[in-house]
Every structure is written in structure tokens, then in C-alpha cells.
Known about the structure:
The structure is a homohexamer.
Chain A: E1 3-9, H1 14-32, E2 40-46, E3 51-53, E4 56-57
Parallel strand pairs in A: 1-2
Antiparallel strand pairs in A: 3-4
Keywords (chains A, B, C, D, E, F): Isomerase
GO molecular function (chains A, B, C, D, E, F): isomerase activity
Protein name (chains A, B, C, D, E, F): Tautomerase family protein
Amino acid sequence: MPFVQVHIWEGRTVDQKRKLAKAITDAMVEHVDADPTGLHVAIAEYPRESWARNGVLGVDRKDV
Amino acid sequence: MPFVQVHIWEGRTVDQKRKLAKAITDAMVEHVDADPTGLHVAIAEYPRESWARNGVLGVDRKDV
Amino acid sequence: MPFVQVHIWEGRTVDQKRKLAKAITDAMVEHVDADPTGLHVAIAEYPRESWARNGVLGVDRKDV
Amino acid sequence: MPFVQVHIWEGRTVDQKRKLAKAITDAMVEHVDADPTGLHVAIAEYPRESWARNGVLGVDRKDV
Amino acid sequence: MPFVQVHIWEGRTVDQKRKLAKAITDAMVEHVDADPTGLHVAIAEYPRESWARNGVLGVDRKDV
Amino acid sequence: MPFVQVHIWEGRTVDQKRKLAKAITDAMVEHVDADPTGLHVAIAEYPRESWARNGVLGVDRKDV
């Protein structure tokens, strides 16, 4: 039944998304008894100019 | 006053969105007495490679 | 398939929520061809001290 | 860096949440190279009267 | 017009929320020309057992 | 620790986003004692055809 939203920077491959969605689904079934038939995992990707950590946009960071 | 977010696969026409936003707004006014002047409906669209049901990405499904 | 989140002040009855969820589901099926078997509507309720419009918390407003 | 929101019915134990948060974090690190120091997992729980699938509130369903 | 959601641990006073909502609204008007009449700020509070950073629930952390 | 999501129409410059993210971060630290090292601000932008106020899509409004 549940809905899981992943908020992340853009730039993952389809295969990375495939494995992530599968692993999160498995975790939901194993740990919180989720019914997988209605379980959705949605990945919302943000450009680096639209996400800040510690007040600094991704495009302005030197460490990533 | 409220805010309604619709999370959906991409690919709807403007006219589909127009009718959906109107119908959701009407439902909010009729059933929960929402003030429409501050009522927002936002449609977040996801590519099929970014949404999984039952652990399977949309791009990998055979049934849709 | 989709997921609809309604963000609203707390205080609706179960029957209001029942009718709202049904009406939004019907709108999704009619206007954007959603598959209702995996369609979720989730209502997130906020106390009036946790929601502001125009910079003013609900608990501080005189007009509602 | 990312943020993961889990939308689910209320009623899980602290230990179930502990295991779920750990498993999702591990999946994010393994599959999408997330930096775990800034990775948050937030579990939003909804009462059964505030979540509908297929247009029917959880409180009205016979099958769950 | 916009909608701002703040996801945070529970435990803030009404006055803290009042000042936060005002400051975020002012920032939206000053920096992105938001129309404040339709601008909402909603604060979603989570118990410490429902939020993990770095894979560890708030209730299990020693440093906060 | 917290996560702030800004839902807004598309069309802001990087510099507008930079100032907004900084101002929201500062407000979170000042008013609710947020730890900025784990504080994220994410800006989700919507095209005008995907956001309605008062039941009317942005593309159909004459006043904006």
C-alpha cells in the first residue's frame, strides 16, 4: 500500500533506479509488511541548481 | 486553503490537466469546504524510468 | 497508479474524507485514465498552528 | 544528501521503523552512491480514515 | 502562489512556528517574487522515532 | 536536520534560487534551532500547465 518518494540529485542511470526501487520495495515488504502490489516508489530528481545543503546550492559546492 | 499534489507518470495533455485540476478543486470545495481562492493543485510528472510499482520500474513493465 | 496527497487543516469528519477520496479517485480515472486499483489518496492534516497563509499562522487569523 | 519520505498507515513499532530506515539508507548508499551523513529517511504515518486505495478509505475496507 | 513544506522533528512552540513562517514568506517574496496572498507554509512535524539520519532513528541518537 | 521543499512555478534564475535557499536556511537556524549541516532546501519547479489555483491552470490565467 505505501508510497515512497526519493528526493535526489539528477544523474542516475536507469539501472541504478531499477536496483534502488527493487531494494526499497523489498525493505518495505520485509520490515513493515507492506503489500507490494500497491506499493509505489517514485524518484524525484532535482538539478544541482535547485538543491541546497547547509545553505549552499549544489552548483556552488566545491566538495561534490 | 489546501494544497493538493498529484504524482503521476508524464504524458498527459494540457486539456487533461485542465479538467483534472478543475474536478479536484470542485471536489475540495464540495466535500471539505475548501476556500478555492487559495487552493492549489500541482501535478508532478515522473518519467517511467523513475517510478516503480511492485518493485518494477514503469519502463520494465509489460502490462502498461 | 498515481498518488494524490491532500494537505489540509485538521478537523474533517470521516464522512467528508470518504467523499473527498471517492471524488478525487473518480476525477483521476475520468480525466487522466488512472488505474484505480493502485491509486492512493492520502490526506495529511495539519493543526492551525502549523500552517500559515500570507505569513500568518492559522491560529492567528481572524478571518477563518 | 537525499531525502526519502515513506508514506504509510500508522501502527508500526519503533523496531520496525528502525530496521526500515536502516535498510533504505543502505539501499541508497549501495545503489545510488548517496552520502549517508546527510541522508534522511522520514516516515509519515496516516490513520486509516485518511488514506484511500481504489477510492475506498482504509476504515471501510474489508480486506485489510 | 507557492507552497513551502517544512519537514522537522516535533517540539517547536507556536511562537517559533510563527516566526519561521513569517521569515520564509518574506524570503519568498523578496527573492522569488512570490505573491504572498496565495503563499502557504506548512510545517510537518515528525516524532523522533519516525526520522532517521545516517540510518539511525532520532530516538537512538546520542548526539541530539 | 530538516528538509524544506519549495513548490513553485518554473522560471527562477540560479541567483534567485541561491538567495532563497540561503534565506530559508538562515530562518531555520534562527527560529527553530536547525542544524544547518544536515539541512536541505529543495526547489521543485512546475510548468504553468501543471499548476492550478482556484481551479484554473497557470497557462489559462490572465492575471499572471
